[in-house]
Amino acid sequence: MQLLAEEQSLKRYNTFGIDVKARWLASFGSSDELGELVDWAAGRRLLVLGGGSNVLFTEDIDGLVLRNAVKGIELLHEDEEYVYVRAGAGESWDGFVQYCIARDWAGVENLSLIPGNVGAAPMQNIGAYGVEIRDVFWELEAWSLAERKVYTFTPGDCEFGYRESVFKGRLKGQFVILNVVLRLSKDPVFHTSYGAIREELGDREPSIRAISEAVIRIRRSKLPDPAEIGNAGSFFKNPTVPGEVFARLKERFPEMVGYPGLNGEVKVAAGWLIEKCGWKGFRRGDAGVHARQALVLVNYGQAKGKDIYALSEEILHSVQDLFGIVLEREVNIIN
């Protein structure tokens, strides 16, 4: 076991580019290494960090920050319809997606260019353009911090919801995801009706690669590159409201955007709500709302996490005041 330098900046390890410090910083590539580090950290604060693409640090971490570096992609087995692929939690998610596309394994092409690592995919139940990770999820292995042993989680065990799982709910902070197994299709079913995918495809025949490339173009046109401007993608979840509530709001705001959901509920576009409140393109110091996508909060360079958090609070209150809808943050606040 080798700890990295003390008082280590985490700026390069979170896509917001927030310059906070960790008292200690280390990485692990296996459950054995993880166990050693957890034993060393006994009595100290412990934070496990993946790709840093869905977190907002608001202050220094007085404890040990562990970076998940479990690597490897392996085809476990296959049948006539599916391949079962295991990926280490520390693998780049988009790198894994492109690995699958290159082998004509279908199911994750709509999730192209989502930042972060594989381990965050089931934790957040990531989703985009009509597809969620639970659609292709088979199982995962996670290490219990309390029992120092590995458990296998099936889809039912994970309790997937909209950008939710058991790892963000009742088991939050109790397990560290080591690897994920996905069941991908040899005979693809293309999802092109959501967003602008069909329009972006134009005359191209749908294929795994064509859809991936269309998604990448759409995302790049709407979302800022974290390498150029600090952000964590969508900062807020799209809220769901009862159908009758949406109908009343639609009378007041005819242009309001919503998508039918389960049990008569309607999912409302949070970005539209925020834009309607006048926040799109807003900037205060180096904290702001992106000019092309109001759902994305950004760090223009030297913003502190507390600045971005305060801005998100103002946005929450303004949306609630105008629409009576309470937004929920998708990004994890670390303080």
Automatic annotation (TrEMBL):
Q: Which GO terms describe its molecular function?
A: FAD binding; UDP-N-acetylmuramate dehydrogenase activity
Q: Where is the FAD-binding PCMH-type domain?
A: 17-187
Domain of life where this protein originates: Bacteria
- GO BP annotations, alphabetical order: cell division; cell wall organization; peptidoglycan biosynthetic process; regulation of cell shape
Look up the record and report any one GO term of the cellular component aspect.
cytosol
Q: Where is the active site?
A: 163, 234 (proton donor), 330
| Listed InterPro entries | FAD-bd_PCMH, FAD-bd_PCMH-like_sf, FAD-bd_PCMH_sub1, FAD-bd_PCMH_sub2, MurB, MurB_C, MurB_C_sf, Oxid_FAD_bind_N
Pathway involvement?
A: Cell wall biogenesis; peptidoglycan biosynthesis
Q: Which reaction does it catalyse?
A: UDP-N-acetyl-alpha-D-muramate + NADP(+) = UDP-N-acetyl-3-O-(1-carboxyvinyl)-alpha-D-glucosamine + NADPH + H(+)
Under which EC number(s) is this enzyme classified? 1.3.1.98
Pfam name, any one: FAD_binding_4
Q: Which cofactors, if any, are listed as required?
A: FAD
* UniProt-annotated location(s): Cytoplasm
Primary site of residence: cytoplasm
The alphabetical list of record keywords is: Cell cycle, Cell division, Cell shape, Cell wall biogenesis/degradation, Cytoplasm, FAD, Flavoprotein, NADP, Oxidoreductase, Peptidoglycan synthesis
Family label:
Belongs to the MurB family.
Alphabetized NCBIfam families for the sequence = murB, PRK00046.1
> What biological function has been recorded for the protein in this entry?
Cell wall formation.
Specify the protein name: UDP-N-acetylenolpyruvoylglucosamine reductase
